[in-house]
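FIELD: query
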Amino acid sequence: MTRTVDLAGAAHLVLNPGVSLLDPAESMFEAMLEGWERQQRSRFLRAAEIAPRLRLVRRLAEFSGQYPWQSSPGELEAFVSQLASGDRPVAASTVRGYQVTHRLFCEFVTDGRYGWALECDRRFGETPVQICHEWNTVAHVVDYEGRPARRALTYDEVQALFDAADGRVEEIRARRRKGALAAMRDAVILKVVYAYGVRRREAAMLDMVDFRRNARVAKYATFGSVQVRYGKASRGSPPKRRTVLTVPEMDWVVPLLAQWSDELRPLFEPGAHPALWMTERRGRVSVRHLNDAFNAARDRAGLAAELDLHSLRHSYVTHLLEFGYPELFVQQQVGHSHASTTVLYTSVSDEFRNRLVERSLERFDDLWEVQ
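FIELD: result
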């Protein structure tokens, strides 16, 4: 047996040997979860990442009626079968994420250095085992496992979306109702999300000071670039930062941002609040509100229901490539660590691909003429 050491989450650091437990099994289970939480916190994982993992382990225990030292691979397989059946089965990628969580938990409680297996054997005569194996978990065999319906918007669809958002402003004004200012804000947000290809949380967390000049393009003034400070973080790391340059094809966003900053945002009376997007209660808009704003404009425009706010990011990647920007530039603009991820976001049009074929044919024709 491996010697126990003072690692974060070790059994002897969580359990209190001097306390008599009324429900030993339930208390042991909760202590295991507490130990796993400590171990994850020691790796600088965020609370928002840890909490769903703990809930998932509890879900399996509630489903099977067994504690970790009693569970076998069969319980996991039955749990997954239930998730995959019914009217709303979960996606394969979701199931695999659940299985990864259970595998990590099992690795923790079966690691001899933490002492949980030894404690379970001493108290219950049983020990936890790894229940996630290659033969009973979902394999990761394709690069993209998102919803097939999610795609980039065409240029006409982007315009229809923006027209619908602007139309809502005019409709509210015509009816002399409150909410025109908030509707204008939402319309500008959607355009900024597209013009810079930012994620929803990145957009919600933008501050006024995040927009900067680009010395190479002085005419854009303050809006030559935007510093994204709350990019998608890797596990255990702080949010990633990147600078997104304003590209000429999207420079129509510059006067919109100038009008928002100079004329519209002050009407929310933000005071010293740093947020770019303010609510009527002088707070920062939420990610959920951004989703709702997109959905409302999408439905008003009559676009496909499977499109969501993240589709604008897909559109940004696709359209930059169609504009002729190098893949590395696009990758850096959207903050992807790997070029393969950027490729997954791309759904270039047939017209763009036909232009590439025509250029290749022209090069071959020129080559034959030389020969």
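FIELD: remark
Residues 350-370 form the longest helix (21 residues).
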